[in-house]
Amino acid sequence: MDQEVFDDNKIEHIPINEIRPNPYQPRKHFNEHALEDLAQSIVQHGVMQPIVVRKSIKGYTLVAGERRLKASRMAKKTTIPAIIKQITDEEMMVLSIIENLQRENLTAIEEAESYQQLMTHLELTQVEVAEKLGKSRPYVANMLRLLALPSRIQKLITSGKLSSAHGRTLLPLKEEDVMMTVAQKSMRENWSVRTLEKYVNDFVFRAPRKESVTQKPKLIRQYEAQLKDLYGATVDIAVVKKTGRITFEFTSEEEFKRLIDELSNKE
């Protein structure tokens, strides 16, 4: 589908004021300085790559090319080169996300929200979303975990003050105020993800009594990390004498159902 959409299409110049925004656009933040630079380029050279639109009852609906459309408006253009497509809502949604992912324009939170949007509106599983977008299932699962973070932590990630990996590492802390305190300490002291993970683990699993905590063997910690990457969830492996326990942590009913589905379908 993705390749066919852009091949062998006629380019037309259509009125900009007849183009409505894409309702499935995952990107919410646009760099104003970059838009101004693009607008200046359009003034000098025109729009080098056509946008993609879908014909609607009145005018057109944008499918791909919002930056070019915004910059063209800034450049006071009245028309814009466009390819007019006959596509479904599903194709429109997927194309919007793919364009932004390929251009690396989405923030981590916007990317996670786009995956959630596909799952909700198209009733897709994480596996199906991964297949449609050419991503691995664990990658999609890890991105979706960001949506379980409080909005204040999400804003730190969106602004670039905190990485998405740091954000996911904060999830076991559960309480928003605790997350913010630790996040600020991490940013202030420029912690690596590994340093933050050790701090969070020590914080979460700290014994209430003055008892020595035995460090887990390196092999066990490696297995925990492998399972975490595979299933996109925090994993704890505990071994007492000859009895072992593997615990998967989830933060919502949806994540619980996702884990059950993943565990049930593993070959």
TrEMBL record:
The keyword DNA-binding applies. The keyword DNA-binding applies. Residues 12-101 form the ParB-like N-terminal domain. It comes from the Bacteria. It is found in: Cytoplasm, Nucleoid. Belongs to the ParB family. This is Chromosome partitioning protein, ParB family. One of its GO terms (cellular component) is chromosome. GO terms for biological process: chromosome segregation; positive regulation of sporulation resulting in formation of a cellular spore. Keywords: Chromosome partition, DNA-binding. It comes from Aliicoccus persicus. InterPro entries: Chromosome_partition/occlusion, HTH_ParB/Spo0J, ParB/RepB/Spo0J, ParB/Sulfiredoxin_sf, ParB_N. Pfam families: HTH_ParB, ParB_N. GO terms for molecular function: DNA binding. SMART domains: ParB (SM00470).
